[in-house]
Amino acid sequence: MTGTTQRIPQATSKRLPLYYRFLQNFANAGKRRVSSSELSEAMKIDAATIRRDFSHFGALGRKGYGYDVNDLLLFFRRALDQDEETDVALIGVGSLGNAFLKYNFQKNHNTRIVVAFDPKAPREGKMISNIPVFHPDMMEEKIKELGINLVILTVPTRAAQEIADRMVDIGVKGILNFTPVRLTAPDWMRIHTIDLSVELQTLIYFIKNDEKHSQIE
To answer: What is the mean pLDDT of the chain?
Structure first.
């Protein structure tokens, strides 16, 4: 396999964890090689898209053979830094935040929540699901102390931008934003927003459209 230094399209980058997950499934089933059409059928992604995604990383497969499952797993493990754990801070321990603490990712993930912050927590901290939870007054101190560069934001809408500004001030590199607020931040900070209400409305829209098309047919 050959590497590449070219810039990878964002859409391709977002699919990398999916490729890794499905390749793990193939490996667990004892499959040694896989074709783009087999991946396409399993993932419901067009085979041409898969081949185009893989082409950004050089020669990942061989014509007439397909892709070696273990080789691909090793490649994507390295690409996703699966061998290196990433510590994450959770800000906001309401219903959604509590769910994150209880889940705190599984063995197949390379991330773990190591600290959380919530206004109801004391400054000295308390344990929830074996994770220390502190008052937001302690955010800057604890995040710097733990060397954290990624935070999950599950706070009320009114507090979202203020928290983001505080993260910018201490150099946090990324925010996974579960609030509906479109946060503003410098270009060097990565912000991924997951608005659950928008995702739900989008799903409802597609379901209704599918129903209309099936009635027409």
So the answer is: 85
